[in-house]
């Protein structure tokens, strides 16, 4: 099969994050902005935690435990997960030092971008290799990825927009995050198609799971609670759960 069809499928899946950034073009009354941000943060953290628990950890654990004995597999899994956790604290510290104005929301947006780039890179590899083997399988995986990439785009664009007031900056950061998947496709085609292993993907995914869960609990949830709009925390989380269930049972 040629390179371009699998690359196109992977790119569409990755750049669907930009669709999530379009919410910043809706007109919101000043009194509703906090409710909107709370909803988006709650939706995003639910999607991140849900994907990590229902997809990333089970898939990565299976791949790692298949390669190693039980004790060694658990040890390596916990170690890589812990590295993902520590990475969030490290990135937080660096971003706090570099941002002074609107730093809380901006930091959340940038952290979400970094986390989702790391998440999207192996997704790009998997989508490309799947599409390279079977167009039908590639489309199925691509649709599932698009379903959760859109709210992921929201989690990047909304905090950055309300921290900077710049639609251009918000869309740019979301676009950069989405580029990780076509980049993964290119890397897979050039370097990995003959060498990539399930174990390698497993370690990448469990690292990203640690990063995303920590980001959600340590950063996104406290920020959502700051606005004291508990109703919209429940609504955002509920919508996130519905999207996760659709992704799980339909795709």
Please explain how this structure is put together:
The protein has 251 residues and is mainly α. The chain has one domain (4-17, 56-250). The chain contains 10 helices and no strands. It has helices spanning 4-15, 17-21, 30-67, 70-98, 103-133, 135-164, 167-178, 180-192, 198-226, 230-250. The longest helix is centred in the N-terminal third of the chain and has 38 residues, at 30-67.
Task: Quickly list its features.
251 residues, mainly alpha, 0% strand
Portion of residues within helices: over 70%
Shape: globular
Biggest β-sheet, characterized? none
Helices, by number, come to 10
Q: Quick check: average pLDDT?
A: 81
Ranges where pLDDT stays below 50 over 5 or more residues in a row are none
Portion in strands: under 5%
Cα-to-Cα separation, first versus last residue: 24 Å
The tally of structural domains comes to 1
Radius of gyration: 18 Å
The ordered H/E elements are HHHHHHHHHH
Structural class: mainly alpha
Task: State the gist of this model.
This protein has 251 residues and is an all-alpha fold.
What's the structural blueprint in terms of helices and strands?
Layout: H1 4-15, H2 17-21, H3 30-67, H4 70-98, H5 103-133, H6 135-164, H7 167-178, H8 180-192, H9 198-226, H10 230-250
């Amino acid at each position: 099969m040629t390179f371009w069809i699998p690359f196109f499928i992977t790119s569409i899946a990755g750049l669907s994050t930009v669709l999530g950034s379009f919410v910043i073009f809706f007109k919101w009354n000043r009194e509703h902005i906090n409710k909107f941000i709370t909803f988006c943060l709650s939706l995003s953290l639910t999607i991140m935690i849900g994907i990590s628990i229902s997809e990333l950890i089970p898939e990565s654990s299976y791949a790692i435990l298949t390669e190693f004995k039980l004790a060694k597999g658990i040890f390596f899994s916990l170690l890589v997960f812990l590295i993902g956790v520590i990475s969030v604290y490290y990135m937080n510290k660096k971003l706090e030092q570099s941002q002074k104005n609107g730093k809380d929301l901006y930091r959340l947006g940038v952290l979400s971008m970094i986390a989702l780039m790391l998440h999207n890179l192996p997704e790009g590899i998997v989508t490309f290799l799947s599409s390279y083997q079977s167009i039908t399988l590639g489309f199925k995986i691509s649709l599932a990825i698009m379903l959760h990439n859109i709210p992921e785009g929201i989690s990047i664009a909304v905090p950055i927009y309300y921290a900077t007031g710049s639609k251009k900056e918000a869309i740019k950061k979301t676009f950069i995050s989405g580029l990780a998947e076509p980049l993964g496709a290119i890397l897979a085609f050039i370097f990995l198609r003959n060498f990539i292993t399930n174990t390698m993907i497993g370690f990448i995914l469990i690292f990203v799971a640690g990063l995303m869960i920590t980001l959600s609990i340590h950063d996104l949830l406290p920020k959502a609670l700051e606005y004291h709009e508990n109703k919209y925390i429940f609504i955002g989380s509920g919508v996130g759960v519905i999207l996760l269930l659709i992704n799980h049972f339909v795709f």
